Amino acid sequence: MDLPPPALELPRLAVGGPGGVMARGWGQRMLPEEVAVSLTYDRAAYAVMMATPLDLEDFGLGFSLAEGVVGEAAELTAIEVLPVELGIELRMTLAEAAAGRTVERRRRMAGPVGCGLCGIESLEEALRPLPPVAATVEVCAADVLAMVSALTSAQRLNHSTRAVHAAGFWRPGRGLIAVREDVGRHNALDKLAGALAHAGERAADGVVVISSRVSIEMVQKAVLMGAGILVAVSAPTALAVRAAASAALTLVAIARDDGFEVFSEPRRIRA
Question: Which of 115, 135, 147, 262 is catalytic?
Fold first, then answer.
């Protein structure tokens, strides 16, 4: 059984036109696929997430790091992507130390696309204190504008579907070195975290840039990655700003071609 494609063309009836004339016409539209992905550890079910069937090895590692199932990439000893009748099984094998932690934290989730807090059982866990960010990376205003433009250009799946989010990693002097896309913004960020871990890149050495709004979960994931700067094209929530400030994360949002706004720790944005 093969993996489903990340996007496919489907027929649609287009209605509309210039000058208020309601023309009708049949054609094709490229749409992103979403698939139920079962994340299992040592053959035991842990979570079910709806995701785009692309870069799933990165998704598995990034999700595992964000969940605290593993503390480093080496604790995930194997990742298999297995198409099954109702979706995809992401079958992961843990080192012995990580396997013990999973027994304590195991939960089952059946969440909507990009659900960031599905299955969390307590407010304390959902709003857990974040460790302070130690990253010393700094960028200038022109860098921020450049990375937002680069992310837009690099969203290949979104160019054809106009329906997926992206998360990218930008390094001073090197530019945008990694981009991951998914129908879920949280999934895209998990995929990016996994890609960086697989490549041996430290999030503290660059900037995480995302195509979506900034909710509390996006701040939590960026901080746990070790990023010092998070840049987003849309606005943050008030809770996300408070969380970023408490962790000393530089939060830049509403970043467009003509400017941006800094909501916390502006010291990392040089004049």
Answer: 115
